[in-house]
Write a structure and sequence with these properties.
Structural class: alpha+beta
Helix content: 25-40%
Number of helices: 5
Bound molecules: coenzyme A
Strand order of the largest sheet: 1-2-3-4-5-7-6
Order of helices and strands: EHEEHEHEHEEH
Largest sheet: 7 strands, mixed
Distance between the termini: 21 Å
């Protein structure tokens, strides 16, 4: 199994995460968003040519007041750069085998690369309620961002993990 950037030739038709929106995104939009519109990049976990999971990322920014108080200190008053984890999904056939965590760790490494090359304070994800505990296990904390809430469907919970903490964790267990 390898994790690498999506290629135009990858067969995305068989991917089933159980969430039609996440499956449809991979099948219809991930390619054009990456290759034509440059909106974001998708990384796929591939085993013998079959996509078992994916993570889509894009650069973003976060208002300084939305950061956890401990991180806000000593930072300037303007929005700070982040890596946004826009989508993450694992095929139902490959669940609960550590693949989601592996994809997430891969994304954390992308954030470190981004921080070194262009600037990035951390990874931001709009977590579905049922995935909050999953992100919490890797150190993400909920942010108190209230914009974009809607009564129509459960609002996602913005969660953040700073590059500083990613690096500290890497030093503890390289
Ligand atoms: C969430 C998802 C990506 C997890 O992928 P996965 O490969 O099954 O997860 P892993 O096997 O890597 O699990 C890693 C750890 O998180 C835990 N975990 C996984 N899903 C969890 C959940 N929904 N709630 C709480 N803990 C969870 C596992 O028990 C495991 O714990 P451990 O390290 O102590 O053993 C996957 O369930 C999925 O694709 N769900 C549908 C789409 C979705 O919700 N995506 C997130 C959108 S914000």
């Amino acid at each position: 199994m390898e994790i690498r950037i999506l290629q135009a030739s990858d067969d995305r038709s068989g991917f089933r995460s159980g969430d039609p929106e996440l499956d449809g995104f991979l099948q219809r939009y991930a390619g054009q968003n990456q290759f034509r519109h440059h909106l974001g990049s998708t990384y796929v976990a591939v085993d013998q040519g079959r996509i078992l999971g994916y993570a889509t990322v894009a650069p973003g920014q976060l208002e300084i007041d939305d950061l956890p108080a401990a991180l806000r200190k000593k930072l300037p008053e303007y929005p700070v750069p982040v890596l946004r984890l826009a989508r993450l999904a694992v095929d139902e056939a490959a669940r609960a085998q550590g693949l989601g965590k592996e994809l997430l760790r891969f994304v954390l490494q992308l954030a470190i690369r981004l921080a070194k090359d262009y600037g990035c304070t951390g990874v931001l994800v709009d977590a579905k309620a049922e995935a909050v505990a999953f992100y919490g296990k890797l150190g993400f904390v909920p942010l108190e961002v209230l914009e974009g809430q809607s009564d129509a469907r459960p609002a996602p919970i913005p969660m953040f993990l700073s590059v500083r903490e990613i690096q500290a964790a890497a030093r503890r267990s390289p």
